[in-house]
Amino acid sequence: MIILHHLRIGRSIFTVWLLEELGLDYELRVYLRNEMGRAQDDLKMAHPLGKSPVIEDGPIKLSESGAITAYLIETYTEPGQWAPDRADKAAWARYLQWLHYPEGSVFAPLLMTMLLKRGGEAPALLDGFAKGEVDLHLGYMAQALDRQPFILGSQISGADFGLTYVVSMANRLGLIEGYPALQAYLDRNTGRPAFRRAIDRAVE
Amino acid sequence: MIILHHLRIGRSIFTVWLLEELGLDYELRVYLRNEMGRAQDDLKMAHPLGKSPVIEDGPIKLSESGAITAYLIETYTEPGQWAPDRADKAAWARYLQWLHYPEGSVFAPLLMTMLLKRGGEAPALLDGFAKGEVDLHLGYMAQALDRQPFILGSQISGADFGLTYVVSMANRLGLIEGYPALQAYLDRNTGRPAFRRAIDRAVE
């Protein structure tokens, strides 16, 4: 059975959601943060970086949200269901792009925004960079989601999990009010039965 | 023919390197930064985010370094050559993990370090986060590369391009002196004939 190492409260809830959407059996191992909000040593037993999510699937141990999404979908679903058929090169390329985009482009400026918000005088260069990038990417995602419910079109796909994560992060930072398409996307995804089951099971 | 939109000087040199390693024909379109070090409007004609690298392959237009690497290797190489055979689940999972790791884990704290270094008083929380994460990941990469020349073993693979990028970024920030395995890895990869051809062709 798949084991998911899940650090509460954090991004791995989106991997719980994915496992629920795919209808896979899994064991959820829950870890708690210390007073500083960081993982504790117990999670380092599961993975040397002490990060979450980490999954185990038999002898395979895997970290990195995007890699876990790609792996689970490739291993446990039929082509065309959660990812385009690889034979459709253009659709496959779009899928790859959106799978890498949340971490590749959106996460860093949102993380900076979050850390700056929590305290301290913001250095102008870093602050300006973070603001500019956040605006750019929120606008880009909102435009991409303006005429379709999911990032690849009418159907949810593996590319929506990481994207929902960064949109939810932006939402927690109070940044998506001006983007109704992003708010609708977040509501649509977090309202899905599988997401509700994930929240219930992970007690978030 | 593949077109690569390349913003000088920046990360897309690693995509030029990949194209050279794969021996593919490509047209290099070079863009220059403005005085602020940012891309100019000409690159926004190629991609709405004004980012680089972007490739075009016939009707397919693709951004995100990791996605471009995955796409080019899947499209133009035989399984087992630049990526493990997908049938070997464990090897494939490791490949996916290291393909996602540079952007998913290492890039954000390095970017913060770079922006903090360029000026301004560093807010303690952000500075502490960046330092802690940078140390953690440099140590992790150094350990992974201590007994093997490339990240998946004795042979270079698609997972080495993004990793070389973040190691080179750490090097430019003066951070890898204490990690001989990372210095050796960087020297090994940037000394490859294909890397030298990339530098020559992109005039970096």
Structural write-up:
The structure is a homodimer. Chain A is about 55% helix and about 10% strand. Chain A has a four-stranded mixed β-sheet with strand order 2-1-3-4. The first copy, chain A, has helices at about 15-20, 40-45, 65-75, 90-115, 125-145, 160-170, 180-190, 195-200; strands at about 1-10, 25-30, 55, 60-65. The longest helix of chain A is centred in the middle third of the chain and has 29 residues, at about 90-115. The model of chain A has no long low-confidence stretch (mean pLDDT about 95). The first copy, chain A, has about 200 residues and is an alpha+beta fold. The first copy, chain A, has eight helices and four strands; from the N terminus they run βαβαββαααααα. Chain A is globular and about 50 Å long.
SSE arrangement:
The structure is a homodimer of 204-residue chains.
Chain A: E1 2-8, H1 13-22, E2 26-32, H2 41-46, E3 54-57, E4 60-63, H3 65-76, H4 89-117, H5 124-144, H6 159-172, H7 180-190, H8 193-202
Parallel strand pairs in A: 1-2
Antiparallel strand pairs in A: 1-3, 3-4
